[in-house]
Amino acid sequence: MKNSTPRIIAPSILAADWSHVADEAQRAKQAGGDWLHLDVMDGHFVDNISFGPTYVEAVRKSTDQYLDVHLMITRPDHFYSRFVEAGADNITVHVESDHDVAKTLAGIREAGCHCGLALSPDTPFDDMLPFLDQIDLLLVMTVRPGYGGQAFMETETMPKVQQALSERERLGLNYHIEVDGGIDIKTVQIAAANGANVMVAGTSLFAAPDMAAAIAEMRR
User: For this structure, is 180 an active site residue?
Assistant: First the structure.
């Protein structure tokens, strides 16, 4: 089963030089990146802290690119409106977080944003089934959330990508299937072969000698 949805490359700002965020956002766009991915971590849902709405707002002021904001936080229902105001185009929340998932997704959509739902490698795909008709994007984390630089977990996560594709076709839906974690020139092809079409990549793009060449290779 193959995915016919166009491939989207989403450089992750977590791996950028934060002291020059405007320049980095422009560099990603000029290199051919389609979206910018922003990982928000609260130190509770994951054991790391990244940034909040003010930083997202700073990125929004520096680029007109689609901002894909991923909330790795305990209470996304309490905070998502602040990221809407900051300029997010898509807000993805975790199915494992402490919130009424359907209500949060509906609120994000009513606020004018696209909405996504993410699951971690240890979470069964069945936890996503009640919400598939309520989302624009399904994110399969291909590492355990919280830190960059982890190895791609193919065995644990690619069956979930396959399920996401199978259920999308069975139900006649059109959500994007996104992967995030350990994505590079090699693993992007594995993810694509299993059904993913949105590829979040951090270090492999921002640290590449030639980001444009790296993005072109990922797209190919």
Answer: yes
